[in-house]
Inverse folding.
């Protein structure tokens, strides 16, 4: 029963994390976005168009229509989709996915992307049809029902509540006993939810003037990223007395000892060529196949090599303690993860004080190849569990406006050698994402007294400086600067989302000041 629950949980988590990403990928394939982007870019290069014009044309003719099409698909209504033949054809192609629900089923917040996270158990059939469509198109599929891929034995749960009001987890060598500290006559405590609902985290613009006064001088502005996992700046930080903290993915890997563990595994495999051959043979088959014949072939190949791999991952022992090595490494990884989380919380408190208030971005990104996903909800929940007060802020346009001249003039420009040697034949150079320059000619910077250059910005620094501008503006008159106000699109009509809210906040601020007088 417990193992069945684990399998079901893995399926549910897979839908929560990946359904929206898979659906967007299917739409990109049906609309042939990559080829359209490449052809339009080549045409504009022939016309000697500037990089700015190329970006503008790609956004206008490809990216923006595709984004609006995806929003229309999320409602399952054909009238919300473009009239163009290519878009209607793509909509008809994915109609089996959109009709994989009961007739009267309605998506929460009228969005399939939101509903896949709120009610993932209702999207199994749609995910399966998505896989079948990719196989029909001859494209690389994905795991509709993820399988356990580790050969190292894992913990299993043994229920002992009848005897001791507790439970046991064991992997055959180690054992963890979880039980109550004191005997009670009322029986086991009822299960309680341990997760934190991110909807309960307040937005910084929803706080009252009194709440802003309480947290004044304590706010730490945080911008998450991929390589720089967190960039933190105190609201009172200045150039002369900076109060900043940066937590990178490299720091995290060092604390988790991932490189060390990977080298241990590679050294052991080098001494066992039969293990390398067995893993290579299994990798030639696909466990993603939903075709019965192909999946049966994958299973048979895996079973034929199971004795070699099971013996290697189960019987290998450490040199010193003679304990099962891979189970020891798994336990060490868990302990290191806990220590890294505690150390991060300790470092933030040491840098910004025990009573600091964290103002974090309300956005997170999905997994990207070769990088971890940007941890928004996960990181916020982690910090809250360590006792931090967390508020949210909308980061709209904060990496586009220059903090000095307040113009939408920040752009990438730096071309560097591709850091991946095996891809340099296809793409020799890449644009440096984290370095921006202000293209406003009225915002030039005098470097050494003689040379005048465009002002350069680190993307994270520019973002947190604009966060501070938003925070100060909210404290002054209760409004968000217009340049950072998000525009909501309804069909083809644009309206200013915050217009009425801004006016309401101004009135509340005025009434509060009058009452104080």
């Amino acid at each position: 029963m417990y193992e069945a629950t684990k399998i079901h949980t893995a399926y549910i988590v897979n839908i929560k994390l990946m359904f929206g990403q898979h659906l967007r990928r299917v739409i990109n394939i049906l609309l042939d976005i990559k080829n359209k982007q490449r052809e339009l870019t080549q045409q504009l290069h022939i016309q000697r168009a500037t990089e700015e014009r190329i970006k503008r044309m790609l956004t206008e003719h490809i990216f923006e229509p595709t984004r609006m099409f995806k929003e229309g698909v999320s409602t399952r209504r054909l009238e919300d989709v473009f009239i163009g033949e290519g878009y209607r054809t793509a909509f008809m192609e994915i109609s089996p996915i959109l009709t994989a629900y009961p007739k009267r089923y309605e998506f929460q917040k009228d969005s399939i992307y939101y509903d896949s996270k709120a009610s993932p158990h209702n999207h199994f059939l749609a995910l399966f049809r998505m896989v079948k469509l990719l196989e029909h198109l001859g494209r690389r599929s994905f795991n509709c029902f993820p399988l356990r891929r580790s050969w190292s034995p894992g913990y299993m749960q043994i229920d002992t509540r009848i005897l001791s009001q507790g439970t046991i987890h064991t992997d055959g060598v180690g054992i963890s006993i979880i039980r109550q500290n004191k005997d009670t006559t009322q029986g086991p405590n009822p299960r309680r939810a341990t997760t934190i609902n991110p909807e309960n985290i307040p937005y910084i613009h929803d706080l009252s003037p009194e709440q802003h006064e309480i947290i004044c001088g304590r706010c730490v502005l945080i911008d998450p990223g991929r390589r720089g996992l967190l960039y933190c700046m105190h609201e009172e930080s200045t150039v002369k007395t900076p109060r900043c903290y940066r937590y990178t993915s490299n720091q995290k890997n060092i604390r988790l000892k991932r490189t060390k563990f990977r080298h241990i595994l590679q050294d052991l495999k080098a001494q066992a060529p039969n293990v390398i051959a067995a893993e290579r043979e299994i990798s030639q088959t696909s466990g993603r196949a939903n075709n019965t014949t192909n999946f049966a072939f994958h299973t048979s190949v895996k079973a034929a090599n199971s004795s070699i791999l099971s013996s290697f991952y189960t019987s290998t022992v450490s040199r010193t303690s003679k304990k099962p090595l891979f189970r020891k490494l798994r336990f060490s990884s868990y302990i290191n993860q806990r220590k890294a989380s505690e150390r991060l919380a300790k470092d933030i408190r040491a840098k910004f004080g025990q009573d600091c208030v964290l103002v974090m971005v309300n956005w997170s990104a999905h997994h990207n190849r070769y990088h971890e996903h940007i941890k928004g909800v996960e990181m916020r929940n982690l910090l809250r569990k360590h006792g931090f007060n967390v508020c949210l802020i909308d980061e709209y346009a904060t990496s586009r406006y220059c903090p000095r001249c307040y113009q939408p003039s920040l752009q990438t420009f730096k071309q560097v050698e591709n850091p991946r040697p095996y891809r340099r034949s296809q793409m020799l150079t890449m644009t440096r994402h984290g370095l921006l320059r202000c293209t406003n000619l009225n915002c030039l910077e005098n470097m050494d007294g003689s040379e005048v250059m465009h002002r350069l910005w680190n993307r994270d620094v520019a973002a947190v400086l604009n966060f501070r501008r938003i925070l100060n503006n909210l404290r002054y008159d209760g409004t968000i600067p217009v340049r950072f106000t998000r525009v909501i699109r309804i069909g083809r009509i644009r309206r200013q989302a915050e217009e009425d809210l801004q006016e309401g906040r101004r009135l509340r601020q005025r009434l509060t000041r009058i009452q104080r007088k």
About this structure: The radius of gyration is 27 Å. Residues 209-256+336-500 form one domain.
